[in-house]
Write a structure and sequence with these properties.
CATH topology of the largest domain: Rossmann fold
Radius of gyration: 22 Å
Number of domains: 2
Distance between the termini: 57 Å
Number of strands: 11
Bound molecules: adenosine-5'-diphosphate
Order of helices and strands: EHEHEHEHEHEHEHEHEHEEHH
Shape: elongated
Number of helices: 11
CATH architecture of the largest domain: 3-Layer(aba) Sandwich
């Protein structure tokens, strides 16, 4: 590694996700391994502007691999959207001799880093940390797998009470623009129907499917709905009313899982993914690379230009829709 880079900053930004700590730990320890200084920045771009920095060494990240959330905290920062805000951030980085950074976050955080690069040529690498898995250039984002496990565990519990009372539950899960969480957790928890923004199943199909379930004597029904799904034109509460009106035989309940999906100890998969991405990100910076986002494709750590990652759209696995259809026979 023949690099001018001597000090690397790391921070988490935007929405948090389980596994961010494992990514921080990996970046810090890889810096230590290559004898580079490492600085943690608290609260994302807000802390960068304010100079809220913490020198970190290999021991600063003891016992955090198993913790949810982010020890460096996260924030949304409007000031960084302005050239004046970014100038303040740059001055802070320069006065602390920071040569490059690793940003762990979503596409908003990467867009900010790219704007910053265009003005100040500060090298950076992005690690995708979000439960939604909605980032182009990687099959999995850090936090997605943990969120799926959390959702499946919750639905299993809802299923217990649903079947005791012969109830139908609409379970709303996170996913504003994409249905990855809904589709995967729906298949994993054996949902009767899965409503996602990418695929318009229609209300008729929902009624048909629920009618068939009842006729086959199923003791409970779970319909998983991505929060961003508007393909039926109805949110979960309106869906409940609609089914009660059209299929009065059903006793319907709604459960919105909400922010619990973002918490919890990261799964082993997310810890390993974050560890691999952290190592490769620091190595990439030391090899003189910049403006790239780490990803995992075919179980290999890859890099995609951030300009492409923020423009592209991640796609759901259509095969899973077919699997779900066959499973609900
Ligand atoms: P996420 O990274 O999870 O997508 P946000 O979209 O909230 O989260 O973005 C996180 C932060 O990144 C914002 O609060 C802002 O500071 C910065 N950011 C987002 N978009 C831009 C932009 N176009 N220009 C500069 N900074 C941005």
């Amino acid at each position: 590694m023949n690099s001018q880079i001597k000090k690397i900053a790391v921070f988490t930004s935007g929405g948090d996700s389980p596994g961010m700590n494992a990514a921080i730990r990996s970046v810090v320890r890889t810096c230590a391994y290559f004898k580079k200084d490492c600085i943690g920045i608290y609260r994302g771009y807000e802390g960068m502007i304010e100079g809220d920095f913490l020198p970190m060494n290999a021991r600063s990240v003891n016992n955090i691999i198993n913790k949810g959330g982010t020890v460096l905290k996260s924030a949304r920062c409007d000031e960084f959207r302005s050239p004046e805000g970014r100038k303040k951030a740059y001055d802070q980085l320069v006065s602390n001799n920071i040569d490059a950074f690793v940003v762990i976050g979503g596409d908003g955080s990467f867009t900010g880093a790219l704007a910053f690069y265009e003005e100040y040529k500060m090298p950076f690498i992005g690690i995708p940390g979000t439960i939604d898995n909605d980032i182009f250039g990687t099959t999995y984002t850090v936090g997605f797998d943990t969120a799926l496990n959390t959702v499946v565990e919750a639905i299993d519990k809802i299923r217990d009470t649903a079947s005791s009372h012969h109830r139908l539950f609409f379970v709303e899960v996170m996913g504003r623009d994409v249905g990855h969480i809904a589709l995967n957790s729906g298949v994993g928890a054996g949902a009767e129907e899965i409503l996602i923004p990418e695929e318009n199943l229609g209300l008729d199909r929902l009624l048909d499917s629920l009618t068939r379930s009842k006729a086959r004597g199923k003791s409970s029904s779970i319909v998983v709905v991505a929060e961003g799904d508007r393909t039926t034109g109805k949110n979960v509460y309106e869906l409940k009313e609609f089914v009660e009106k059209n299929l009065p035989v059903y006793d319907v309940r709604v459960c919105v899982l909400g922010h619990m999906q973002r918490g919890g100890a990261p799964s082993c998969f997310d810890r390993v993914l974050a560890s691999r991405m952290g190592v490769k990100s620091v190595e990439a910076l030391l090899e003189g690379k910049t403006n790239l986002m780490a990803g995992i494709i075919d179980n290999k750590i890859t890099f995609t230009p951030v300009s492409e990652a923020i423009k592209g759209k991640s796609k759901i696995d259509k095969e899973l829709i077919r699997v779900s259809d066959i499973m609900t026979i």
